[in-house]
Input
Amino acid sequence: MVDNALTTMQRQVLDRIGGEAVFIVFASNGVASDAYFVSKAPVRGFEKLVRGKNPVFVVNAVMRICGICHAAHGIASTEAFEDAMGISPPRNGRLLREAIGLINRIQSHLLHLTLLLPDIYPRDELLGFTVKTIKLYNKATELLGILGGAPTHPPYLVIGGVAKTPSDKVIVKITDELEKFNEEFVALREDVERKALESPRIKPLLEKEYYPEMLATHLFYGDRFNINPSKIRVVRYEEYRGGNLPKEAEENTSMIALYEDRIVEVGPRARLSIYKGFDGKTLWDLQLARFMEVEIDVLQINRLLERIDPHDESSTKLLTYRPGKGLGVYEAPRGILIHRVELDDNGRVSDYKIIVPTMFNIPHMEIGVKGLPSSIADLVPRIYDPCIPCATHVVEVDKNE
Amino acid sequence: MAYQPVVIDPENPLGYYTGIYLAQTADERVKRKLGPDYKGGGAVTSILLYLVEHGVVDAVVVARRKKGLYGETIIAKTPEEILEATGPKWSIVPYTLGLREKLTSMDVGRVAFVGLPCQAQFLRQVKMFPLMESDFSKKIYLIISLFCMGTFAVESFLNYIKKSYHVSPDEIENISINGDELVVKHVRGEIRIPIRDALFHLQHGCLTCPDYTGLFADLSAGKALKPGFTLLITRTKLADKIVREASNTGYLKLSEPDEESLKIVIEKAREKIMRSYKYLSTVL
Amino acid sequence: MSKPTILIYDLGGCEGCPLSIMRVYPQLINIADVYTKCLGKVDLDREYDYAVVTGPICINSPKHVEELKKIRKNSRVLIAYGSCASVGGIILYARGGQEPRPEHRVYAPISRVVRVDYAIPGCPPAPQMLISLLNCIRRGKGYFLDLFRAVALNPKLSGFDLMDEVVLNGLCVGCGACVLSCPTNALQMIDNRPDLIPEKCIRCGTCTVRCPRFSQILIQRSRLLQKASSLSRISGV
Ligand SMILES: Cc1cc2nc3c(=O)[nH]c(=O)nc-3n(C[C@H](O)[C@H](O)[C@H](O)COP(=O)(O)OP(=O)(O)OC[C@H]3O[C@@H](n4cnc5c(N)ncnc54)[C@H](O)[C@@H]3O)c2cc1C
Ligand code: SF4
Ligand code: SF4
Ligand code: SF4
Ligand code: SF4
Output
């Protein structure tokens, strides 16, 4: 693999990503030829942690896998339990859940933008823009506080629906806030896009085409009937890469997910490609896809809120504690998120599996960087927006399924 | 100015304060409500009325008597609701989940809270150190604490009155302190219970509580020696301003505190700190 | 006077805590020079006035233990921020055994490994928290500062401990502070006493520091502990 005498190895502790990871890049003459994405966060082991527990606990627990896409985990988990229990939320609950999930997605995309800004803006303009983006991020965060009960780990996400129906007033308020938010966002987006064209660090991404096979299940929510989970295989990183790895890569705390034994891209670009005909082929298009999503998500939230009946229940109180198996598939900010649960005779968790989007996307960070100047190598993982807290809490799915 | 940190110290039992006043209501509605033989000053109610009627706050959290010694916290937005909640409730009125629901969802911005010293401590912590993202910190505008020597374990105390004095809980109309006696008014008359006997029915937790005057509050209120007066202690500039404004706008009459009232408060406050040290050492 | 330097570092939590801090970044930069991975590089080898550590410490990860020790050495004031770092939080339930690193078994509040100056529960704490805390530390005294110092010495704090130490111990006065402080509504008032719904408690510890009784017990205990440890230092035990 690495036998060229001119080849250098560069090890970079990645900053400005969600979590802790190292990117090892091999380069010849300053051009990246191979890379290893090594996540370093300790494995907290949520699948093991929730075994034997009451479903109510599990939903609260798995939201804490990730402080970025907490609601996504909450939704995937509640969906899985409902599937296992044979219940479904009332109409309001389903609508509200989607809205909460989309706000979380906007939150996440804006957070990612904050992390990306230093690659786009010159030093003297950076601080102002960072503050501006954070303020916008805070706005989305506030909305989640209202609809979900808290801006992080929203407690209103419960099995059976959403714990609280917003009043007429609250809905009007959110609609107003979203309008203001959107105005500011559009302005910000235009500025960022313009500046990106001038940024020497971004330029290679604008030119580099990388467009692997895409996988998504829904534009806004997630649909377990659009994917065959038995075709997903989760393997250890070493197994996926094979061969002689750099020593450090063997310590990887993340796993890799394959669909029909192939690598696939999941996330904003996959969703838009499949459901909106988006055909951005460059690495920078990953970011444009995020921008587009924020805008269509705002519209969708408004549509959802219009359909909510403030006088109707949003959750079914009829939890059934019985044995069963359930599957929850949700389009998290970074792509397909799957929670699978098995309940024992007491209705407690006997088995729990989580597959997170970053496990699908890690291979692309390593392949996408090939051919780019190694000086900007760190940008490739960043543009893919990995989420390490999620990626390090998964277990190998049962191979004989 | 930033809020003064609270230090509980028997050498300085009243804690940090900016002013102490003797106050009496100047509001006819409050006087009418209190009736001729109420011993309190109605000052707290008057201040709350000022706050709401002058639009300083959107609502106040007070306790309303539910039945006998039991009360419930309510979010009052109108003068009528505030007047209805006048007077002490002789037990602690717990904050419940419903309160958070209402505070976070209702369209109230600024809220003034009335509670006991332990609740004032909680509110101050929520305001200064929001440990939860769903805390209603921004809504806490003013914290008013009543003085408190301790609250009764309600069932135990009621049972005692019933057994010893044959007055059933439903018959109790009012309880007040007169010197060393607890005066319990009931439908058939009144009984006088030596405080010493009643103390046995205080909640255990209250014995370890070091705070008599509500050190964490913006404004503390308790009984003055002179019947019909409330002793007010202001601990922040905001509270000072509010008390003066309430006086300027005719809700409240203010005067200098008398030496004797002050002496008693200091004594009781110190006594409570010492009591708490004693009991605390037994539960550590 | 130049601004104090502050390091924000996550040891493997969910990132909810550093993100909550990021939300007050616009205010924070006015009072401190901020070093965080979220906005650029961090250097653990330089000295900081404050270090804010989020996430639990994985006792079986030498890399993280070493990092934590280094941070302690290089910072004047060490703050354990959030439930994971301060009291363990949800991650106290972790039992290890999971792929691809089944050796990561034991997680603990960071005060298990290094001396911590202040420990702040909350999952995550509201963003404003850090600003208030820094202001308070500057003033150097007060009940709440004592309390957060005490949490650093007594990290065993959860709804279960609230029940054991206060409610079942007969010290609860029924104020309701704990009920209003639980992010998962695990506490409810029954006959003027809180009761715990055990399956809802994520061990975030918020209720315990909000309880007027427990907070006081914590402060007293930590005084005794400190006294004992200084005594043992003097006598060379
Ligand atoms: C349990 C208890 C113990 C007390 N112990 C002492 C004492 O030892 N020494 C002393 O000097 N004073 C004590 N007080 C305070 C005193 O009884 C008066 O409440 C105080 O002097 C204010 O008088 P005021 O006439 O100005 O108040 P008012 O105008 O009557 O207004 C009192 C306000 O407080 C609210 N309130 C009453 N009880 C409660 C409660 N339990 N929780 C929350 N809000 C409440 C009412 O709703 C009303 O809004 C105690 C009060 C209580 C409730
Ligand atoms: S004595 Fe203390 S704990 Fe008891 S009710 Fe009064 S303020 Fe609260
Ligand atoms: S305390 Fe809560 S928010 Fe903070 S890292 Fe732990 S789980 Fe995440
Ligand atoms: S009872 Fe609630 S506040 Fe207390 S530790 Fe458990 S989850 Fe946290
Ligand atoms: S906060 Fe403490 S004293 Fe108050 S109700 Fe809860 S356990 Fe009881």
User: Anything to note?
Assistant: Confidence is low (pLDDT under 50) at residues 397-401 of chain A. The pocket of iron/sulfur cluster (ligand 4) is lined by residues C 158-159, 181-182, 184, 186-187, 196, 201-207 (CB under 6 Å). The beta strands of chain A are 7-14, 21-28, 31-39, 157-158, 161-162, 232-236, 255-259, 324-332, 335-343, 349-355. The radius of gyration of chain A is 21 Å.
